[in-house]
Amino acid sequence: MSTTIVVVGGGVSGLTSAYLLSKSNGNTVTLVAKHMPGDYDIEYASPVAGANVMPMSSDANSRWERRTWPEFEWLCRNVPEAGFHFKNTLVYRKHKDLDQATASMPMDPLFDRDPWYRHLMPDYRELTADELPPGQDSGCSFTSVCMNTPVYLSWLVGQCLRNGVVFRRAVLSELTEAARLSHAGRPADIVVNATGLGALKLGGVRDAAMAPARGQIVLVRNDGPAMVATSGVDDGSGEVLYAMQRAAGGGTILGGTYDIGNWESQPCPNIAARVMDRIVRLDPALAGGRGVAGLDVIRHAVGLRPYRAGGVRIERETLRDAAGGGSVEVVHNYGHAGWGYQGSFGCAERVVELVNEIRAARGEDLSNEPRLFNHEAAPTSKL
Q1: Which domains are delineated in the chain?
Q2: Which residues are documented as binding site for FAD?
């Protein structure tokens, strides 16, 4: 008898978990969510994300990104319909931002002077002084990818459907309710919790470490020559500067904010004005040298990143099912903050490992499991 699994959550973490679980022999997977690709809602962060790969973890916590990058590189090279393209990436640092005594907010390891990812990302090099824009003290360059998130989310749905995943809409008050939504006709053996910010209030979880990290962006039609991020801005502790051009005509994302605890769903015109002004001062070519007037705005948007104090939660738990009696085996995968895409395959791989621990304890034979990652099944050439 197959193992029945219900994945709760239709964002990139839930979809990638369902995709890899559906590759395993003996799994019957149902994905249950309130929001699905194609929806736009303040509760649903994945479509609003850029998204790209700019490593944000510490070296000690880099498994998720180390395991995801080769798969994204493989997709970019071999699967054009997934909505990826390669882009040169520029990371700029101000010395005052790197000093915790003067920094306006904690620094991501992205801005380390000697980052661990220098050995991961292709073409990594430090920038010379004459390559730095005014106001920046140092920086680095490397090749990365940026994706068109609506295209990529739809591609993930297609891969899941091809592997037999069934999608169902539902609004849950308790996580254990998901076990009774399996399409297999019997309660699920395992529930995967990929509810993102929903984990704050979902019964059976109610994780008080969760909070929104509000991101306000401007989407423009202008094509950016490179992806860019800076270590800080002078306009407030909740504001940041980055730009990334989505693949397949998806426009260029200008950001933005990283405002923890802010639930406001509507774009602020003053923030939008600062976002656009900052980027055209850093990169005048983006707007054809015409300043903010040269930006062709598609829309303003807000997304709430699923921030979790203490970091992502990926672990097993057994929950009592108060309504149905007995217990439900749960694997959690939530709290990815602003790196959900670039850690998605690494985190989903760990979900599969934890699910397989449960399957092995049930006496299943896991000796002939297929490869989870395409990049490990087929060689790729260098950039």
Answers
A1: 3-46+151-208+309-377 (3.40.50.720), 87-144+210-308 (3.30.9.10)
A2: 195
